[in-house]
Amino acid sequence: xxxxxxxLTLISFALGLILAVLVALIRISESHNPLxxxxxxxxxxxxxIFRGTPLLVQLFIxxxxxxxxxxxxxxxIELNAWTAGILTFSLNTGAYASETIRASIQSIPQPxxxxxxxLGMTRPKVLWRIILPQAARVSLPPLSxxxxxxxxxxxxxxxxxxxxxxxxxxxFAALYYNPLVSYSLVAFLYLMLSTLLTVLQSxxxxxxxxxxxxxxxx
Length: 218
Description:
Elements (H helix, E strand, L loop, with lengths): L1 H27 L5 H19 L2 H11 L4 E2 L2 E2 L5 H26 L3 H9 L4 H31 L11 H12 L2 H39 L1
Antiparallel strand pairs: 1-2
């Protein structure tokens, strides 16, 4: 059962995180040229759509809805279940994670930007060398929570025929007529997986915060 759930989660989260960073950087850009204004508007619209609609609806639109767009009887876009699932989960994760990353970047005190500029650093260098490493530590807890939520949200992929843990439990429930046992078992598996990830999250938070605590002592 996990051989589908884990890859679906890891691939979707990795792609969503890359998209989130790009969207966050676009939204905090100080450029005022027409192209950047257009990208900012597009980024805002993307985040608005995916944060404002249910994930299950998004899955159904991508898997069942897009093939309905036809020209001369042929579908313009037709995705298999696995591709549709990864695409939808990545876009959904990217929308939420972009707000986390944007807020983390903006939480870094403005004097750090000003000090770096005073040293002659360009904005990209300031972001890469000073701001993003600190923002990564700040965003770790909420991003970890998003990852854990994604693990559980992959159960919705059963609605588009992906054979993950929840669909397997549905098959067992129908085969052996024991829905309570089947669904309780899959709930327990999700609980154990989430608990393991929570322990890993706590460990990473301690590791990334140890230098902050040392610096505060001085």
